[in-house]
Amino acid sequence: MPRSNRPRRRPSSSPAPRGARADRGGQDREDREDFDPERVLAGFARLESAPDGDWRVRQVTTRTAAKEYTCPECSRVIPPGVAHLVVWADDHLFGEAAGISERRHWHTHCWRTRSYRRR
């Protein structure tokens, strides 16, 4: 059997070399595996201005799409597990809370190609 040129691992009981970080049981590695930038950005709503007003648009990822919704543009069902958008009026006549309560789930394509007759 050929020999390996890689150095051998230190036994866990021996002290770490000077200047080396202490191992926290793989905690850093686990934190990096749990970090998902898509999931972090999906929680934020961006502001979009259009001829029919200002809209808050939030992306729903395939992981977080758990329920069935009906798209107001095409009247088709958005099944669970399909990425789509949640949209609500930012400049609602009765305030922010009323705009959020009237939010709708749209197919991404339907939102981009919508006609501006809604509202």
Key attributes of the depicted protein:
119 residues, alpha+beta, first zn-finger domain of poly(adp-ribose) polymerase-1, 4-stranded antiparallel sheet, two-stranded antiparallel sheet
Task: Outline the structure in words.
The chain has helices at 27-34, 37-42, 96-101, 108-112; strands at residues 45-50, 53-60, 69-70, 77-78, 84-89, 104-106. The chain is of the alpha+beta class. The chain has a domain at 50-119: first zn-finger domain of poly(adp-ribose) polymerase-1, CATH 3.30.1740. The strands form 2 sheets. It has a 4-stranded antiparallel sheet. A two-stranded antiparallel sheet has the order 3-4. A hairpin with a 2-residue loop joins strand 1 and strand 2 (53-60). The longest helix has 8 residues, at 27-34. It is elongated and about 75 Å long. The relative contact order is 0.14. The mean pLDDT is 77.
Write the layout of secondary structure elements.
Blueprint: H1 27-34, H2 37-42, E1 45-50, E2 53-60, E3 69-70, E4 77-78, E5 84-89, H3 96-101, E6 104-106, H4 108-112
Antiparallel strand pairs: 1-2, 2-5, 3-4, 5-6
